[in-house]
Queue: 2 jobs
Job 1
Amino acid sequence: MMIDTHAHLDFFENPEEIVARAKEKQVEKIMIAGVGPDKFHEIINLIDKFDNVYGSLGVHPEDIDKFSPAVLKEIANLSSHPKIRAIGEIGLDYYWNKENKEKQIILFKAQLELAEALGLPVMVHDREAHADTMSILDAYNLKNVILHCFSGSVEMAMHCILKGYYLGIGGVVTFKNAKVIKEVVKEVPLANIVLETDCPYLTPHPFRGEQNEPSYIPLIAREIANLKDISLDEVASVTTANANKIFNLET
Ligand code: NI
C-alpha cells in the first residue's frame, strides 16, 4: 500500500473515479492539501464521503488576498473535524511574487502559530524562498513538517533531516533533467521521505503533460526505488509508515 500525502482532490470533477483508480494501484490513502477558503467546505465534503481520504486546511501564499483573521478562525474551527490532520499548504512563493514578501511572511507565521497551538503537522510550500522558509520554521515547535515538492539542494535536504523534517517527493523526480532532486533522493534516508502527486499538477513521466492523479504514485515510488537501489516494496512500506505516523492515520 502507498499514500498520496498531497493531492488537490477538490480540483477534480470526478473524485469517485480518481479515488477508485488510486485504490486499484494500491494507493490506499489520500491527503488533500488545502489552498484557500473557497474550497474548505469542498474538502470537508470529500473527507466525509471517502473513508480513506483525509484533509488539511490552510491558505497558500498565492491565495494571500483571501486571508483575514476570520479565515484563520475558520481554519481553527474546521480543524476540529476528526479527519483534518494538518495545516497546509502554507509557505512562501517568491517565484510567483516577491513584491509581497512581508505579507506572505505574516500569513505563513500566523498559520504556523495555529499549527503549533493545535498540535497539527504542517505541509509547507517553498518556491524559491528556501532561506526564509527554513529560518521561519526554526522559530516554531512544530509536531511534524513536510516540505512539499522539495526543491532544495542536497545541503538543504541534510539540514532538513537534522531538524527531523520530511521531504515530499513527487513527479518531478521522474523527469530526466531533474538532476538535483534525484541526487537529494539518493542521499536522504527513506525515513524522511513521503510520496505525493500534487495532482492535478506535476504529472510524472511518462504521462507528463496530462492531468496528474493519485494512481500515478507508484511511478514516483518506482523512481525512488531505482535511485536508491532498493525494492519498490521497501519504498512503499517505509513511506507509508512515515505518512501514517505524521498524520496519525491509523487511528
Ligand atoms: Ni499543492
Job 2
Amino acid sequence: MAVYGKLFVISAPSGAGKTTLIREVLKQFKSLSYSISSTTRPPRKNETDGRDYFFITAHEFEEKIRQGAWLEWARVHDHYYGTSRSVVEQTLEQGRSLLLDIDVQGAAQVIKSDLSPVTLFILPPSVEELERRLKGRGTDESAVIEKRLKNAVAEMAQKDTYQYQVVNDDLETAVNEILSIFKKELA
Ligand code: 5GP
C-alpha cells in the first residue's frame, strides 16, 4: 500500500510572525518540505526567485488557471498567489509531508479538497500589536500597510475554520506550541 505524506496548511495575517515559526518547524522536521508558491507580486529586496516564490507574470498565472494547474489560488493584496497541483500531488505520493503557507481563501479551497490537510492559524496577540509589527518591518509603504491591516482583520475572522490556533505573543511559547502540534501530527 502506498504511504502518502501529510499535508499541512498554515495561514496568518502578515505580521503575525508566521515566517519565523515556519522556519523553526522546517529546521526541526527534516521530513517536511515547504511548498514554494507562485506569485505575480514583485520580489522584495531580500527575496530570491525559486526560493521564496516563483515570480511570474499575470499572463502566465492566468494561463495556468485555465489549465487547472493550481491546487488553489487567490488574489491577495491585488496580486495572484497559487500552489502548484502537480508539485503537491507528487510530493505526497513520494511519502513526503508538505507545508503550505497560504491565505484563508486558498486554505478554504484545500480544506474542501480530498487531501485532508492539517490546518493551523497563527494569530498576533492583538490588532494593535499587529499594526506595530507591520510598521516596524519597514518593507512596505503606509498605504500597503493599511491594506494589509484591513485584510488581517478579515482573515482573523476565519480562524475557527482551522483545527489549531496558535497565538504568537511570546515567540518561544509559540514555537514550542507549534513544534508540539507537528510532532503529534507527524508521529
Ligand atoms: P506576502 O506577499 O507577504 O509574501 O504574502 C501575502 C499573503 O499571501 C500571505 O498571507 C501568504 O500566506 C499568502 N500566500 C502566499 N502564497 C500563497 C499561495 O500559494 N496561495 C494563497 N492562496 N496564498 C498565498
